[in-house]
């Protein structure tokens, strides 16, 4: 059973930054790519970024340059550094394992508002 737990969401002003974290536990996620997705009300879930098991990083075009995905394999963590946040970035952010994701966390809310 794979468990993914996100943290780090919250309220930030436009132009601010947040760092999201995702911790994986259990069996079955090793060797899978790890990624971030987001969904805002009334919209489809959207791909943000992912990092493959081999370390290759892929970003959605609209996130490239503002968002940075990284990982720390020792505690099975994946991070998403988000800079220069815009109101349009407000969403529930999910981390996933596998591509398409075979496992997904419960999500963490990001609100961008002044």
Cα Rg: 13 Å
- Total number of β-strand segments? 11
Largest sheet at a glance?
Answer: 7 strands, mixed
Coarse structural class: mainly beta
Q: Residue ranges: pLDDT <50 for 5 or more in a row?
A: none
Morphology call:
globular
Indicate the proportion of strand residues: over 45%
Question: Percentage of helical residues?
Answer: under 10%
Give the helices and strands as they follow along the chain: EEEEEEEEEEE
By DSSP (H or I, 4+ residues per run), the number of helices equals: 0
Overall mean pLDDT stands at 94
Distance between the termini: 40 Å
Write up what this structure looks like.
This protein has strands at residues 2-7, 10-12, 18-26, 34-39, 46-51, 57-59, 67-72, 77-82, 91-97, 103-104, 108-112. It is mainly β. Strand 9 and strand 10 (103-104) form a beta hairpin. The relative contact order is 0.33.
